[in-house]
Design brief:
Strand order of the largest sheet: 3-6-1-16-10
Order of helices and strands: EEEEEEHHHHEHEHEEEEEEEE
Number of domains: 2
Number of helices: 6
């Protein structure tokens, strides 16, 4: 069991005054049996009307508007979250059982279809067909993620927020978003339902108590092979007591931390800073 305080600052600076801004923020951790949220709040400047709801994928969303002229839009998320050492899962479904289960559940059907971002390149799809031979769905999923980890180098600045899986594979470099999209595409090509998970990662393998560190928004995947199993293909580890979940979706587009529209200014600059402190 570990408890974390996560402070996530983000927003935009504009070259001239923005006169109106309408946004959705997905920056508050979800609540479930393995993730207890003691407190979570958003502070938004300039202030305006806002309300919270849960989207189709059960992610917490805060809609807000800023209707006074402003040169900067600032959003601060402050959350205290406890991660329970829950069971990682023991997915034992066979290929036959998995194929029979998927059509009976809407969520599994949703997470089985490819999107523009996840469609795998031909080379990776070819590997997938070999990877499933002689393996259970769960074993194949592990092999697929390890292959992506060993084939792609983690590197900032080469891909962007709008990148798709095939672009990252061609360059053989990417960030966590690219690793997650590649894994999703490969898993779905194998017939394994998989979903994109967005949240925060404490960068230390053994987080030090009361030490604030620079964290990061992070992405990993969960696949279903009888039950859901969380894995971080960027770091080749099971996602467990350092991974704080904000939400899930089919790909990044379903769970972008901040998206919206503004009027008035012509140019905007995105600002992001994450700080994580282990408190227990």
């Amino acid at each position: 069991m570990k408890r974390y305080r996560v402070v996530h600052r983000t927003g935009f600076k504009y070259n001239t005054h923005a006169v109106a801004s309408y946004n959705e923020a997905r920056m508050l951790p979800i609540r479930d049996e393995n993730q207890i949220v003691f407190s979570s709040k958003l502070e938004i400047k300039p202030k305006g009307a806002n309300f919270e709801f849960q989207d189709y994928f059960d992610t917490r969303v805060v809609f807000f508007e800023a209707l006074e002229p402003h040169l900067e839009l600032s959003i601060l998320s402050d959350s205290l979250v406890e991660l329970r050492n829950g069971k990682s899962g023991d997915p034992t479904a066979s290929w036959k059982e998995l194929a029979e289960t998927i059509p009976t559940r809407v969520d599994l059907t949703e997470y089985s279809a490819q999107t523009k971002r996840t469609t795998p390149p031909a080379e990776l799809a070819k590997f997938v067909h070999k990877a499933i031979e002689g393996f259970t769905p769960h074993e194949a999923a592990i092999a697929i993620c390890k292959h992506i980890y060993s084939s792609v180098k983690y590197q900032h600045g080469v891909t962007g927020v709008h990148s798709i899986a095939s672009e990252a594979w061609k360059k053989k470099v990417g960030v966590c978003q690219d690793f997650a999209h590649l894994a999703l595409g490969a898993l779905r090509a194998a017939g394994i339902p998989a979903r994109y998970v967005s949240g925060y990662l404490h960068p230390q393998l053994e987080p030090v108590l009361h030490e604030s560190v620079t964290g990061e928004s992070h992405a990993w995947v969960e696949w279903f092979a009888g039950e859901w199993f969380a894995f971080d293909p960027t770091n080749d580890v099971v996602a467990q007591d350092r991974h704080i979940i904000v939400g899930r979706g089919r790909d990044y587009d379903d769970i972008a931390p901040l998206k919206g529209v503004f009027a008035g200014a012509e140019v905007s600059e995105l600002l992001v800073q994450v700080e994580i402190t282990r408190e227990l």
